[in-house]
Amino acid sequence: MECFLLTISLLAALLLIGVYCHQIETNYNVPVPYSARILSVPVIDSLDFLEGKKQLTAQTNPGVYFGGALLPYTLDGTLYLSQDYSVSQWEGELTSGSKDMFLCTLPDDAWNDKAGSIRNNHRFPLWLVGEDCYYELSLAISGMPVMSLSTERAEEQDNGDYETDPDRYYYDPSIIYYGKIQVFNPGMNVSRYEILESGVRYYLRGTSSAVYEKKGYSIGLLDADGKNLNQSLLGMRSDNHWKLKAMVADTERILEKTACDLWEHFADSNDEVNEAGPRMEYLELIIDNEYKGLYGLIEPVDAKKLELDKNDILYKFTDWTAPEDEDIQYAIDRGWRIMSFQRIRYPDVITDYEKAWYPARDYLNTFYHNRDTTGSAEDKIYLSNAIDMLLFTMTVSGSDNFFKNMYFAADVSENGSYTMRQIPWDLDLTFGRIYGDKEYEEDETMVYEEAAIPFIRDRKPDLIRPYLQERWAQCRNTFLDTEYILNLLRENQNYLIDSGAVERENARWLNYQMSVDISRIETYQKRRMAWLDSYFAEY
Q1: 5, 27, 79, 102 from 19: Cα distances, Å
Q2: What is this structure's pTM?
Q3: What is residue 30's predicted lDDT score, i.e. its pLDDT?
């Protein structure tokens, strides 16, 4: 009995010591009364204790961490925290980087409505307090992933001259930036909250960057030694190279994402050929403590994605002009990877330019210049892929995607013969949106088709028509159902609204306002799909 009582006494003493030590630690970190904690931040009732302390400002995050990483920060004192708005409880902990400073906030009913506060872009005040100073901060909650780039140095590049290497002259960046990257993903396509921190190199991408104030970027992940680092981002493939689309031409910011989603359905349902194309996920971007807005993170289309081998060639067509045979010969004679904006993107090192240019040269001569070439036209393409590309381009009204903004991958055999695949790219001018004086095409009967299938259809209609009509019916009864397409558009728009990104994007880019009215797109797409049924029935 005495042993039992002694044991109980010791346990009670240890419990009291634990409580006392915890109280000391709590009081040490938060030396003011508080009523609750949100994200582990004490909620206090009064700021009277700040009297006599000096208020400071900071050019960088003064020491507010989430999951062990400094939160992204902008010069106006705003911290950006990524949270999943579909989960009712706040996730994770905000902490100070020093035991000599503590965080606190004030009571706010918005803390009790996570989804509403995120959707309405509600800002929560936050104080980082030391013994004799404090920082007054604002906490913005994004319902989507947040990426932050911080630049440490910039290196200018010598791009040479046009005659020596026009591909490098036109497309290589003039400046490459090196620094650090953070990606906060609250659960996009993954099972738990993910935080990535690594080195990075990045540069301006695309000819549009020279035109628009809101720029696009290419980024490459680097390890501690400055070497390429392969990591999965936002549930997409593990890689070191990514594109950030500014989506300036896409007023609704949902057209390219929806088109990418639809092409992924085509690829997933084609068992005959690898049609892997661009995947895209949304994020908000901060560079050097400046909020840059809403972006689309895109997996590039490359040899890895398309599983190309040493004999294969990957071309990117970025202009409407199909070079003549003598133009390509001109490029061959000079050892150029580019002619009239048709570019060889793979392999990286070319030892035989005649061989590297042959598939594109023969393809253009066959389908665009109507010249006599060896072999049958239908053997030069994957028929199922070319039909998928036609159905896709017509469905999304890809006004900029039926020769231009396409990848052509030539699978080359040992004897030099090839079979060509087509993959779409740069899908912002879709669902009726076009270049020109008017923003939208209202005529739902416009035809957008690459030359291969019409060429073969006119010569061998019995080969093309049954195959195409069967594939159209198959897709139409599944992912090309009109309501399914409309729901994809609505889901992407609702995500942008519910994440709170719309207000932040429009506040940042007054000249590129995002529209949340998609009624025109819905009406157009309904008419378009009805017309396509009749068009393909007579194809």
Answers
A1: 21, 12, 34, 20
A2: 0.92
A3: 86
